[in-house]
Amino acid sequence: MTRWQMNRRSWLRGLTGAGALFGLDALLTAERTDAAAVGPNDRIKVTKIEAFVLKNSWVFVKVSTDAGISGWGEMLKDDAKACAAGALEVGDYLVGQDPCRVVHHWQAIHRGAFYRGGPIKTAITSGIDQALWDIKGKVYGVPVYKLLGGPTRDRVRVYGTIDEKTGVNAMKTGPRGEERKAIKYIEGQKYVDEVVERFRALREKYGPKVDIGLDFHGAVQPPTALLLMKALEPYNPWFYEEIVQALNVDIMAELARKTHVPIATGERIFTKWGFKEILEKRAAAILQPDVCYAGGITELKIIAGMAEAYYTPLAPHNPQGPCSLAASLQIAAAIPNFLIQERGDNEYADLLAKPLPPVRNGHRPLLTAPGLGIAIDEDKLLAQVGEPREYRPQFDPDDGSVVDW
């Protein structure tokens, strides 16, 4: 580092002290008071990686730098401890590196392993990728989507809880009977009728102005899935999600050809290579990659580009926390073929230092703060660290055989 660079960094850090109102970027733009104390041409290095496992199984990763800037990301919740440990191992490579070479590091982490892909390894890459983009956005003083080509929309449609106050008018439910979910290889007419009646009542309650997706969660066997798909069609589901496990894409493609209702899938598919088969075989009309599992922001941008060639939109999966939502919103802002964001109406006040901009008319405003656009409150986060929830096998109460989640 040159003496000029050292003096510039010291001066910039001084500007962010107790009496300062603006950093250099803010002085130039007169609108950002949270600009980074370093600029894009400054040399910074990763100094530490930390992982945090919460009691609800959410896994956070924090990447720190010698410039005082840190980035946050999230990883797979199903194997929380394995992901947390794996993220720390990446420190052997990443500590000492320039965090702004985000795509280079994605390639190094992914291709540096002899065994590649899969949920845990890809989740580790995903969380670190989010954290690096968070750092890079803060260094440049802009939200991530501005580094990905700029916004393609002014706001992001979300779905979750139907609410007149927020204007959310899209939701998702599951194909459940009166007492249980579908667990038999071929369910009988009684069960099918129960599922249809519950969905019919929901459609009658909300009417045609509310979009209602139906999530099979990959837990329904193909013969039963087809029975339910055909029986539910008259009530106009918005989409059928994960009608079967994504392990056999040919089966999903076969079922997709037998209904006019769009098929959605993606939460258990990883990297561009996994989504390539879905697109080529037309197994789904809506892709739902998870930014915490599928490869992070870097990979979701590529998946979106692939999907656009097939006229297929993205509706990112999100059962996790604030980094997951914020990273997904960065993608939503940057791609042309975005459909809607899952659980985009969550507020995460128990983990954030500053509240998210409120949902209005069913849409979340674009995040404007640098990086992912959120600020994690570490005290709030540490208060929730603990032993994660365990996922245990599910059994058929009739005969004790194992069934899908």
Oligomer: single chain
> How many strand units?
13
* Radius of gyration from the alpha-carbon trace, in angstroms: 22 Å
Q: Show unreliable segments.
A: 1-35
Secondary structure tally, helices:
14
CATH level 4 superfamily of the domain at 155-376: Enolase-like C-terminal domain
Mean pLDDT: 92
CATH class placement of the domain at 155-376 = Alpha Beta
Name the structural class.
alpha/beta
What characterizes the major β-sheet? 5 strands, parallel
Gross geometry: globular
Which range best describes the helical content: under 10%, 10-25%, 25-40%, 40-55%, 55-70% or over 70%? 25-40%
**Distance between termini?**
54 Å
How would you spell out the order of helices and strands?
HHEEEHHHHHEEHEHEHEHEHHEEHEE
